[in-house]
Design goal:
The protein is α/β, with parallel strands linked by helices. 26% of the residues lie in helices and 21% in strands. It has one domain. Helix 6 runs parallel beside helix 7. It is elongated, with a radius of gyration of 19 Å.
Length: 228
């Protein structure tokens, strides 16, 4: 660390060993120009205040998890985020259906009013089967992610990374329209699907239907679906 110039360090990744050690963080205090903070298996949402105090220039916040994520944990997180945070990323192997607990679905999230870019990456594993949703909704994940995005009213770009096994559960036109209703600035949506698409006329038709419908809305949001 002593050999590094403060201006050279613009990105920082913290593992679980660093989360509760302010003494260790104090050694990084000179790196005040850090723009990107990556946290692995973030254990305590309230600690975000400590990191933002040490690194006030953070614009990009990336959270990585080795296990499924319960979306209700973002309730507190959004309440602590500084307005400087413009880009928010979540990388995880899956999610916990919040519909199993009606009280969780009624939680009023604090708004993340300055987030412009949101990336959600669950490409390593397929989405949970419909049977895992208490309400048996095939679009369980899409409903859940839209319920989170509605607290990002300034969102301009949303990217979702998934795999071929999950694409059929992400083609609910009603939910994509609902997403745009919460985000008047939303201009682009990218659905990145890992895996080669086999010939599927029904899926292609659904994608085109969503794309065409979104273009007719006031935001004129562009939906891009990429298979790779």
């Amino acid at each position: 660390l002593p050999k590094l110039k403060a201006k050279q360090v613009i990105s920082l990744r913290l593992t679980t060993n660093w989360f509760c050690t302010e003494q260790d963080l104090s050694r990084l205090n000179s790196f005040s120009d850090i723009f990107t903070l990556t946290l692995l298996n973030f254990p305590d949402i309230k600690l975000i205040n400590i990191y933002q105090n040490y690194f006030p220039q953070i614009k990009n916040l990336c959270l990585w998890y080795d296990s499924e994520v319960n979306f209700t944990l973002f309730h507190d997180l959004f309440g602590y985020l500084n307005y400087s945070i413009k880009r928010f990323e979540v990388h995880c192997p899956g999610y916990v259906c919040s519909h199993s607990n009606p009280d969780q679905c009624k939680i009023a999230f604090c708004g993340a009013y300055e987030i412009k870019y949101f990336l959600f990456d669950l490409s390593n594993f397929p989405l949970s089967p419909t049977s895992d949703c208490t309400n048996q909704w095939p679009s369980c994940f899409l409903i859940t992610i839209v319920d989170l995005i509605k607290y990002m009213p300034s969102l301009q770009y949303f990217q979702l990374i998934t795999n071929m096994d999950s694409i059929s559960k992400l083609l609910d036109l009603k939910e994509w329209i609902r997403m745009t209703s919460y985000c008047p600035c939303l201009a682009k949506i990218t659905l990145r699907v890992l895996g080669r698409m086999e010939s599927d006329d029904e899926m292609s038709q659904k994608i085109k239907e969503i794309q065409n419908e979104l273009r007719t809305l006031p935001q004129n949001a562009q939906l891009q679906v990429i298979f790779n």
